[in-house]
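Quick start: what a row looks like.
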Amino acid sequence: MPHSTIEITPQSNIRELVSSLPIAADVLTQFGLGCSGCGVSKYETIAQGAAAHGLRVEPILAALTQARLSGFVPLIANEDRLAHRRAPGSFSGRAKIAHVVPVMSGKGGVGKSLVTALLALGLRRRNLRVGILDGDITGPSIPKLFGLRDPLAIEADPNAPKTPQGNPQPLMVPAVTRSAIEIVSSNLLTDKEDTAMIWRGPIVSGVIRQFYEQVLWSDLDVLLIDLPPGTSDAPLTVLQSLPIDGVVLVTMPQALATMIVRKAANLIHQLKKPILGVVENMSYFTAPDTGVRYDVFGPSYAQRVAELAGAPVLATLPIDPKKAMLADEGRVEEIDDPVCDELAARLLDALAAHPKPKETISII
């Protein structure tokens, strides 16, 4: 199809448009919509992508049309590149977050961060607004998975209560990924990703509350919280202090890991919080040349853990070298796998089965 005849409308699918008009990828990148190659774009229209990133759709359509006719990326005004986000001066102290879902294990090294990322991608592929609060303060992984390095911006809210020193309340602006997932993490408090956060428990708990309360979150459909291992300060802060809908438990097919995950399940039950589902990571490996399935860590314990938790199995995830490579390279959003949709669909079903009263979450 000649480029001059390609129809560009707000309902044009991003992936299909870039396939027909490659220069569209460069135009979208100029607007911060560098997601034409990610696993979300195949489900998203220009209008949906613009809305997710807080952009006006009209300048995007105009630039795409001009590029189609001229073959060059046009100059784009700075004001058209800027995302429309909640302004600190108009911050009312209340943000609407429909669902808050911690991802927990109790055991380290089972892949909670990857599961959190896959859940976020699946939810975004359904055009939902998603945020991730990286609750692993001393060992954060989320920014690395998404390729984020720039420190969080800090803005002052003149309408919020003053600090004890009489200054305006500082508010953090979440980082935004290529596919418009909002992220706050301790690794984004500094420009050096290998800086150690040498903080004791009470400080960690306070930082988690700040990440929830003193951030300019957009109105979100789902806020995922990536929790650190264990059943101590950070998980207790989240489970007891935040209005969570329920917990996703991550396990792996190993008796030791299963035993520790059961401890986490017992903690959640003691606090009378629902468990929305169980995800077994590294469940098996399928040889790419023969298709033979190997239980590398032994037989699955997913159903056993799910029965103890009183929750469904959301997914059993295989060992996948490609996912591991994309995660290591900060390109987790390029994962285009049906498992993302499966995880999101089953999580939303579990949320629907555990309704909570609608509430507006206090941010300050």
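That is the whole record. The first helix runs from residue 14 to 20. The CA atoms of residues 117 and 332 lie 7 Å apart.
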